[in-house]
Amino acid sequence: MSTRAERIHTLLLSAFAAAEAVLQDDSHQHAGHAGARPGGETHYSLRLVTPDFRGMNRVARSRAVHAALAPEFAGGLHALSLRLLTPEEAADGR
Fold this sequence. Notes:
Elements lengths: L3 H12 L4 E6 L17 E7 L8 H11 L1 H5 L4 E7 L1 H5 L3
Parallel strand pairs: 2-3
Antiparallel strand pairs: 1-2
């Protein structure tokens, strides 16, 4: 059985031409909060750098990521903090 992080990574890499995908499980910081589960794997931070975001505004990027991860949100993923960049934006230090 794979972890949620592994499944998220797989979904992202199949949906986007990712130059960089860094996912961090922040669930321990949300213990006792809404959506948190004793086993964790509910709250994550993601930095995704892909040329696919060129020409997309921040909202469109977020919607694209949420659409790609819809199965995980339906299965218990509660919160996802997003840092979504093009390679050019990442190179500029954003």
